[in-house]
């Protein structure tokens, strides 16, 4: 009987190959030398890995953030608008209360909130999003992550904040607001305060929710109690600072 010789073995990561199974090159050689078709970078399996990478970067960066509140509002609000000043003040108060402030990292209300947080010495988070036109993170972000995918970015807002303060805004703001309300309504999260800042701006929407949505039974009475509506900076801050965060509703495993 012939003794197998150790020297003829080839170790390939976790795999051990005998001489007849030798691949001829090492894995590193093939990685470094390969040049071939590149269309696979535009396929869904590759996108899945990129999506995973966004979650890895987001979770890895924000896991130790501590208490935080997300502030939303129009990307178009100018620096001389009263809502810009209000967002700046809300964020400054949140920072003074030991909270990080999370925004979409863009201009308008996002910039105001990042400015308020950063200038008050707080953590000023910007979760940027790739858009067809380049806007980039505003200069007041001191902890920023850029996302390709809206849904990965939206997970970060909810996962790492203990409440939302929503200032007047358009479709983007409404999307963020209604996502939070849907998560609370469906009990995906509990203890998640949503503050609508700017009573006059929100009154039309709230009236429609009461007089049309509630009337026609598409929402219920308690759904209308999910948010605090205010023009008062202190009230807005107090509503979120007291919250323990997006506690997942209990369910049997
Ligand atoms: C349209 C303009 C800039 C776009 N830049 C944005 N950067 C980051 N996040 C954005 C941007 N635009 C929208 N968002 C997100 O939606 C919310 C604001 O949307 P709205 O439609 O303006 O209300 C905001 O909270 C972001 O998360 C201006 O030149």
Automatic annotation (TrEMBL):
InterPro entries tied to this protein: LOG, LOG_fam, LOG_family_nucleotidases
Biased composition (Polar residues): 18-29
GO molecular function terms attached to this record: hydrolase activity
Alphabetical list of PANTHER family matching this protein: CYTOKININ RIBOSIDE 5'-MONOPHOSPHATE PHOSPHORIBOHYDROLASE (PTHR43393:SF2)
Enzyme class: hydrolase
CC per GO annotation: cytosol
Protein name stated in the entry: Cytokinin riboside 5'-monophosphate phosphoribohydrolase
Species of provenance: Microlunatus antarcticus
Reactions catalysed according to its record: N(6)-(dimethylallyl)adenosine 5'-phosphate + H2O = N(6)-dimethylallyladenine + D-ribose 5-phosphate; 9-ribosyl-trans-zeatin 5'-phosphate + H2O = trans-zeatin + D-ribose 5-phosphate
GO BP of this protein: cytokinin biosynthetic process
Disordered: annotated span: 17-36
Entry annotated with the keyword Methyltransferase: no
A Pfam family recorded for this sequence: Lysine_decarbox
NCBIfam families associated with the record: Rossman fold protein, TIGR00730 family (TIGR00730)
Protein EC: 3.2.2.n1
Family, as annotated: Belongs to the LOG family.
Source organism superkingdom: Bacteria
Keywords assigned: Cytokinin biosynthesis, Hydrolase
